[in-house]
UniProtKB/TrEMBL annotation:
This protein's name: Cytochrome P450
Signal peptide: none
Domain of life: Eukaryota
Family according to the record: Belongs to the cytochrome P450 family.
Amino acid sequence: MENYYKTLLDVFDSIFEERLQREDSLKGSDVLDLFLDITRSEDSEVSRHDVLHLFLDLFVAGLDTTAATIEWVMAELLCNPEKLTKTKRENQQFLSKKRELEDSDISKLNYLQAVVKETLRLHPTAPILIHKSVAELADESKSKDMDMTEKFGITLHKVKPLMAIPIKE
């Protein structure tokens, strides 16, 4: 697994290097330019290594939260067959007018949007839940005594994914 992360870091590093070679990247036109500008500053505490790992974390977290959201949407739809039917009907009606679905089409699928929003309400992703730090810990220990050292790791998916089987009542 570390080899994959090394490969991703190499890809990000080559993108960073390419961006640094471009003169117009000094203008700070996107997030990457802004971070690279910060790393160029002599008094900056943020290194290129830090930015590389930040972008890797954002990339991996984005993949994982998207996959988890899709799993929850499917699980909720399987538990609610009438909602699944309504969602499928909306998609079929929309796709009967077009051959392929594009990103810009998502805003036109009102029921699908409502399903996703309701799923996120019922099963929010972790970043939404963590909105402030907790100063008092349950076991009366102090936050300064906690070891927050990072260690390489990844959460793996199950070899056999759970199956959601709707129950008819």
